[in-house]
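[Q] Does anyone have a clean structure-token version of this?
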Amino acid sequence: MYLKKLSEDKLITIDYYTNGVLQTIRGRVFKLNLIEQILSLKDEKQKSLTIPLSGIRNIH
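[A] Here you go.
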């Protein structure tokens, strides 16, 4: 279910943990690397962010 949402080409909102703090980001999937278990996003300001898949709690 999550991979289907990540493969769509539209804005998504992701809740994830980083350093023990719940963060929220809204953006488009730039790259999904299943080997390294990371997700790269570009937010609305075209800033890149890399999130480990294990830290993702919810995808809207």
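[Q] Thanks! Anything notable?
[A] Residues 2-7 form the longest helix (6 residues).
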